[in-house]
User: Fold this.
Amino acid sequence: MSTIRIHQELIGDAKALVTVCPFGAIDASGGMVTIGEACRMCLMCVKKGPQGVFELVKDTEAVPSVDKSLWKGVLVAVEQREGHIHPVSLELIGKARELAGKVGQKVYASVIGEDVACVAGELLEYGIDTVCVYDDPALRYFRMEPYAAALEDAIAFLHPAVVLVGGTPIGRSLAPRAAAHLRTGLTADCTVLDIQENTDLDQIRPAFGGNIMAHIRTPNHRPQFATVRYKVFDIASKAAVCQGGIVVRHLGADQLASAVQVLEVTPKGVGSYIEDAQVIVAVGKGIARSSDIHLVEALAAALGGQVACTRPLVENGWMDARRQIGLSGRTVRPKLIITCGISGSVQFVAGMKGAERIIAINTDPNAPIFKTAHVGIVGDLFKIIPRLLDLIQNGEGVEKLCEEGSHGVQ
Amino acid sequence: MRILVLIKQVPLTSDVAIDSKTGVIKRESGETKMNPYDLFGLETALRLKERFSGEVLVLTMGPPQAESVIREAFMMGADEGYLLTDRSIAGSDVLATSFALSQAILVIGGIDLIVCGKQTTDGDTAQVGAECSEFLGIPCITSVQQICDIHDGYAILTSDTGATVEKVRVRLPALLGVDKDIHQPRLPSYIRMKDTLTREIHRIAVKDLPESDPNRYGLKGSPTQVLRIFPPEVNQDFVLWNEGDLARRLYQYLKQEKFLQERI
Assistant:
């Protein structure tokens, strides 16, 4: 076990040292500086503390190192449902091509399901080199054990350096199950991915509700698993030439076995999902009554978009939970989001900061949302929105005459 | 039925800032609480106990101070508490945490059902439950919305898979990750607090675990390494409007940026 040695003789200001530890594990009360049980070996004291005071003493036992030359390429675990590829998989393929291109390696995909031959063909158009297909009635619905067995088989067959999985409910079950089986590292909900020449994956992810970003590597294990949420990366473009091939793999009965039996599948309520909306009008605690929601609904309709909200409105029962944006709700990445009466908690911002254009309307000039917005409007939404709707419907008075016909204003 | 709930002590608030020069987390206090998502797991377990009889056990991994979340679980109605604490598990990532927890679950033994919350508020990974299930070789269902029935060694439940809700039958023992809001968590009771004040908390150390290889625990058992932590970027490209005809300015902006064009 590695330990941290404290060089007491080098300590100047003992009290200042205490603040170096993010977990409050350093104690200077007893005359001596000590590290207590709260230590998580984050090594911040070694890295950020005064020079030489904290020293990492590694145990001498050598850890066997992985042969990275045996692990090459980037595998995307494609998610499909009834032959439709989940768009997050296409986003991951775009990123996989970028990463693989940097190190001159290949891009792979695995497709798991029943009757998925057409999906495999479609994937080749995105420039995949090898698509591994697992097609079996037992794989019709997602069940953790057989799906993980399929992904593990694809990894054993392809030996990829990196495995990318969509941060969907299914991906967030599949990736940890397979990563644990292979005893390798998994970094969840990455927002930035890059690759080193030796195929070490640079993974950046938020922690503490998005208040802190962490840069993570998996230096001595292969493959390196990362999950990425929907709408974090750009969707892949189709490749100019499709040169890839399809490999059909078969699993044994024991690999297809599961302790789970799917009894019934109910599609979730119809209606548009905010994740797919190009334009979103989001509303927060700035409205005082549920009856005021019609105002933002009218604006969303005028812009051809969807209405979304913050958590308190769901808790009040004013809006459907499926319309909630944030860490405990949905992540959205529209072309435009207009936030109305939303202060901008970190939890909310984490779910919408990927929007291309953010317009925030709030009466409080100090609202944190203005740190995220591209256009901040300090004003009363009850004055601004009705007039904006009027302008959208009727144009700008006199100017309207000149512009009529040239702008199809809705 | 023996139901085990995995719980974790997390900082009272995730509202932490980072000093961009030193990279050190600035925290107002060292105050902690039970991970709020775990309350839903615990409530689910307590309701199952009320419906089907049995006992509710809780397990947490952390420093000795993490005892306080076990006391909190007692106040809500948990029967037994286990604390996995050992200096050599410090610095554990998802893999090492899941492995150590699964080893502790083997030590506790005889568990029919393991219930976890959706995620924690500090690490935010939502992966530990599924990794534990792999190490234990038991089925795992995440995003559980409702537990309909438990009988003859099977649980019938519904789970949210994204686009659909599935009703499934799963063989026990199994690990279930429950969605937030599956049930309204009960409040801790003062009477139960007084009753459980002296109840023993079982401590588990690494030497008690079946796997004795030190390379599976703590920093050494963690494939992922944090290179650095840093504050999130603040948006630079920003205009603020606080005067004039704001509605008209917004209208003109939307028009100029082609958000008012006729849709195809």
